[in-house]
């Protein structure tokens, strides 16, 4: 079994995608969500 699954059975995702890049998932760091590709950050 994979460590995590990106897509559910219906094709939806649990992770948020970057609004700038669109094809990259934001990493959840607890107090913020961060895009490793462009550096976009959402603070909680």
List the helices and strands and how they pair.
Blueprint: E1 27-28, E2 32-34, E3 41-43
C-alpha-based Rg, rounded: 11 Å
Beta strands, count: 3
Give the overall silhouette. Answer: globular
Q: What is the end-to-end distance?
A: 31 Å
User: What proportion strand?
Assistant: 15-25%
Task: Please state how the strands of the largest beta sheet are arranged side by side.
Answer: 1-2-3
Binding site for Zn(2+): 18, 21, 35, 38
Zinc finger (C4-type): 18-38
GO molecular function: structural constituent of ribosome; zinc ion binding
Family: Belongs to the eukaryotic ribosomal protein eS31 family.
Model description:
It is a single chain. With 44 residues, the chain is mainly β. It has a domain at 17-44. 0% of the residues lie in helices and 18% in strands. The chain has a three-stranded antiparallel β-sheet with strand order 1-2-3, with no helix packed on it. The protein is globular and about 30 Å long. The mean pLDDT is 82.
Structural features:
ribosomal protein; mainly beta; metal-binding; structural constituent of ribosome; three-stranded antiparallel β-sheet; zinc; 44 residues
Short description:
It holds the Pfam family Ribosomal_S27. This protein is mainly beta and 44 residues long. It has no helices and three strands.
């Amino acid at each position: 079994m994979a460590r995590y699954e990106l897509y559910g059975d219906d094709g939806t995702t649990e992770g948020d995608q970057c609004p700038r890049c669109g094809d990259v998932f934001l990493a959840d760091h607890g107090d913020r969500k961060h895009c490793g590709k462009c550096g976009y950050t959402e603070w909680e």
